[in-house]
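Researcher: I need the complex structure. Ligand is tryptophan. Inputs:
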Amino acid sequence: MRILSGIQPSGALHLGNYFGMMRPAIELQDKGEAFYFIADYHSMTSLFDANERRKNTLDVALDFLACGLDPKKSVFFKQSDVPEVTELAWLLTTLTPMAMLENCHSYKDKLARGLAPNHGIFAYPVLMAADILIYDSNLVPVGKDQKQHVEVTRDIAIKFNNTYGETFVVPKEQIQESTAIVPGVDGQKMSKSYGNTIEIFGDEKSLKKKIMGIQMDSRTPQEPKPDADKNLAIQLLKLVAPANVAKEFEDKLRAGGLGYGDLKKALFKNYWNYFADARNKRAELAANLDFVNKILSDGATKARTLAQKVLKRARKNCGIE
Ligand code: ADP
Ligand code: TRP
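Model: Output:
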């Protein structure tokens, strides 16, 4: 089984990325042949600073490796080191109905937020389809917001197969329901573009400030809170604390007698501990960038060999070769 996923270098990675995509992807490393990449071509739809892209790309590499991506088990590479993917995107785009792209939530969401979308944002699901299909991927671990894009990929693959004969493996998404949508500090989906993130790595003081700044309601500590499970700090605590600890806090909040300040302090403490090992690993990697760059270039070589093979199959079947 081939497993594939990508993540954009469009800003610092956060708990939504970690629990929605990175941790499930890391867990899947032992279940098949995993391909994970840094989607730098994708980041061009929303980030227009070259140096920032370069810096973010390295940061994503460090973050992912520090969190447990094991280059001995997985092929880890930068999307643009396999330029074949852009050619495949063209072959696919000619079979992609406009209406299917117009219907994509992420695109509609950008329109609704008053952004003037560029063509890249509109066409992005086709590039994502190429990313997936060019490695004969079976399984795509992603957060829930990407489900529709994998469905688009499936539709495009089936259409290509029907039009030009059996060419692509038809993939499936894998979504971990318990962490499908991690909430941000404002209660909306945690996202780089909403400015509501808690980063995986960062400066202790500013992260503490962010967590202590999570908005709560005005009920007094003594009041029982029958809706304790809906509390944002409790939801986040369940991700980073041992189950019995999170339950204890939830029960206390429900019964009354636990102040929001104490709850948020506990959230910060557990969050900080959760990533302690990864933080040390990241510092080691950051001091050894040659090693990190070698991982990415070795990964690119492996990924490119496979991509060339699949692209050739597609070119032949559609009559270009
Ligand atoms: P962002 O919305 O912050 O720009 P990306 O679109 O780069 O994040 O997402 C990278 C991966 O992380 C995707 O698989 C996405 O589904 C997952 N992801 C992002 N935010 C969340 C979240 N809040 N909850 C669960 N998964 C998420
Ligand atoms: N679109 C994904 C995101 O923003 C990143 C991505 C690009 C991806 N290509 C992919 C994810 C292929 C899975 C498979 O999160």
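Model: Summary of the prediction. The first helix runs from residue 15 to 28.
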